UniProtKB/TrEMBL annotation:
Pfam entry (one): Gln-synt_C
Stretches assigned to the GS catalytic domain: 121-550
Protein name in the entry: Type-3 glutamine synthetase
Biological source species: Symbiodinium microadriaticum (Dinoflagellate)
Source superkingdom: Eukaryota
Family stated for the protein in its record: Belongs to the glutamine synthetase family.
Entry's Gene Ontology molecular function annotations: glutamine synthetase activity
Length: 645
């Protein structure tokens, strides 16, 4: 959450909290919440005045500056707050600098209840950063490397993907307004077959938007490093410079809000949904994550000296332990209705969580397990010639890039590629910190118990190397192989959420002082509610669009062929199928159970979504026959391309 305060008479103070998405996976929809804020003015009554009618004064009392109180029951809270016990408090996150914009001082905050329970995204992240510090320093002492370090940090660099379209087209599509994605629509003739959009010139209006957003982000201390076209038409990406994890998460929330605000001024709309258009690539938010010390030691950088090399190998072993032992929890952090459209769909990593440290490193792991030394992994960059005299050689990382892996190594960090584009980064990075802390704690315990550094690393690799996979994650063989290795394939959000509050996960989060058992269970309830709300909103929007838009349009179109049966073709059967399918959807939706959140979510996923797909197929078929002027909503072709010209 962010809190606003004023320095001038026009200025306010705002306490900002990073909240849950109102409907996770609904990025771009009206009402989607990433950050929440409350504004206060710097005005108060002068109670010390002798006059009966007290005059106003400008003031900045510290109790209002650093703490705020509000209603916590109106936020998603999993039962931690109710109407008769609603108090919740904001408190300044002192490690994330305040900033001024539009004559308003923004103060990044944590958000807790009257009893200290967290109901935001940021507080657990801050707790996990403390866990990294505690267990990272303990590990360094155990292995005798970097013992002069005083603290540790986790770092994040996000890559935000998004679509841009005309605001007029957005407003004319109830599915985009309500859900952030199109529920109907056939692909245009030209889409992404030839990868013609990737790295091409950015359209003028979009370039103007990105330039303004870049300038606005720089004003609040977040320099943007990269911007480019993505693979799908109408899709783009921007990325900032790396920062500490909590500050970077704050910046991402600000960026998404800046993009929406500035796009509106230009007659554009930004879509952050993971899959706004069927049939073309969706959007993700790759989270480039690392941990390091205040003395400059990066745990994920293959150092140039012996200590650096040993630390790198040790850190990968710790990460392998965390991903293997808490695989389901990592998967759960990227589970949402929107992300279900991407994970495992040949455009994003599979729903199976695995670690890609590189093929060369995988062979090195085998040698360590077999008794080899921790030194010997050759991480030097290699020179590659271009084969022409006018272009100089390039220096490539020793390991190739694997875009099918959910956790690939990228030279000095790991890239969590499964994060959804509409998500707040806090939860995925919190769990990355948590599982890494678990691995570092386990490794330190082995060494403190008398095992040598080498033997401890070898044992951890031996017990957890089944999570290391360097092959093609898109292949049909990988799910079969993953099953043999004991890696879960939680390919839907309800399956993933069901594992969140397992005894093992709850114990870890309690041990690391990130969540209490009550907080873990509350978070699971919020996850279920988000999923259910999203699917229900989509169903009701589909029914509304069919009954008030598509059916009347089909009727008008069919009436034109009453006197010429030959021209009718299969229209009558196709249009009647639309009516049949919407009636079936209404029936299965009405039959959804209300016995428990888990049962309702599973029913929506396994039964209702199947009928949603059947209705969509019927409507999209009708679109290929209906007269263009009668089609009731902007088409894919209009939405994707019109703002480019």
């Amino acid at each position: 959450m962010i809190r606003h305060i004023a320095v001038e008479s026009r200025m306010h103070v705002s306490l900002c909290v990073e909240g849950h998405e109102a409907i996770q996976g609904g990025g771009g929809a009206v009402g989607g919440m990433l950050g929440a804020f409350k504004k206060d003015t710097l005005m108060d009554l002068e109670f010390g005045s002798q006059f009966t009618t007290k005059p106003m004064k400008a003031c900045l009392p510290h109790e209002r500056l650093f703490q705020g109180e509000t209603d916590g029951s109106s936020f998603p809270n999993g039962g931690l707050r109710v109407t008769h016990s609603a108090a919740a408090f904001t408190t300044w996150d002192r490690s994330s600098p305040p900033f001024v914009t539009d004559c308003c001082l923004y103060i990044p905050c944590a958000f807790i209840t009257h009893f200290g329970k967290c109901i935001d995204e940021k507080t657990p992240l801050l707790r996990s950063m403390d866990a990294v510090k505690t267990h990272g320093l303990r590990l360094l002492q155990a292995i005798g490397i970097g013992k002069d370090a005083q603290t540790m940090h986790s770092y994040l660099g996000w890559e935000q993907e998004f679509f841009v379209l005309s605001a007029d087209h957005f407003k004319a599509r109830p599915d985009l307004v309500n859900c952030g994605r199109t529920l109907f629509g056939k692909l245009p003739t030209r889409h992404q077959q030839g990868d013609l959009n990737y790295f091409q010139a950015i359209p003028g209006k979009v370039q103007e938007l990105l330039d303004v957003a870049q300038a606005e982000m720089l004003k609040i201390g977040c320099p943007m490093a990269v911007k480019h076209n993505e693979v799908a038409p109408g899709q783009h990406e921007m990325s900032p410079v790396f920062r500490t994890a909590n500050v970077s998460c704050d910046s991402n929330v600000c960026f998404m809000e800046v993009m929406n605000r500035e796009a509106a001024k230009l007659g554009l709309q930004v879509l952050f949904h993971e899959k706004p258009f069927a049939g073309i690539n969706g959007s993700g938010k790759h989270a480039n994550w690392s941990i390091g010390t205040d003395t400059g030691l990066n745990f994920f950088y293959p150092g140039k000296n012996e200590d650096g090399a040993k630390l790198y190998v040790t850190a990968i072993a710790c990460l392998a332990y965390g991903l293997a032992q808490y695989n389901e929890m990592v998967r759960c952090t990227v589970a949402s209705a929107g992300n279900d459209h991407r994970l495992g769909a040949q455009e994003a990593p599979p729903a199976i969580i695995s670690l890609y440290p590189g093929q060369g490193f995988e062979s090195f792991v085998d040698s360590v397990v077999s008794g080899g030394d921790l030194l010997g992994y050759k991480a030097e960059k290699k020179k590659q010639e271009t084969g022409c005299s006018s272009a100089m050689h390039i220096e490539a990382n020793v390991e190739d890039r694997n875009r099918t892996a959910p956790f690939p190594f990228c030279g000095n960090r790991f890239e969590f590629r499964a994060v959804g584009s509409s998500q707040n980064c806090c939860l995925p990075i919190m769990v990355c910190n948590a599982v890494m802390s678990a691995g570092m704690s386990h490794m330190a315990s082995l060494i403190e118990g008398g095992m040598s550094h080498r033997d401890a690393v070898a044992q951890v690799f031996k017990e957890n190397k089944h999570v290391i996979f360097t092959g093609n994650g898109y292949s049909a063989e990988w799910p079969v192989e993953a099953s043999k290795r004991g890696l879960p394939n939680l390919n839907t959000t309800p399956k993933a959420i069901a594992t969140w509050s397992s005894e093992k996960n709850t114990k870890l989060l309690e041990t690391l002082k990130i969540y209490t058992k009550e907080e873990t269970e509350a978070r699971q309830e919020v996850m279920y509610e988000n999923y259910i709300s999203c699917i229900c909103c989509e169903v009701e929007t589909m029914i509304q669009m069919v009954e008030t838009g598509f059916v009347p349009a089909c009727a008008k179109d069919l009436a034109k062929y009453n006197s010429v049966d030959k021209l009718d073709g299969s229209r009558k059967a196709v249009y009647e199928n639309v009516v049949d399918q919407v009636e079936k959807l209404q029936a299965v939706y009405k039959a959804k159970p209300h016995t428990s959140l888990a049962e309702e979510a599973t029913y929506l996923c396994d039964t209702v979504k199947m009928q949603m797909l059947a209705l969509r197929a019927a409507v999209d078929k009708a679109e290929t026959m209906i007269e263009t002027s009668l089609y009731p909503f902007p088409t894919y072709e209009q939405m994707i391309y019109s703002h480019h010209f």
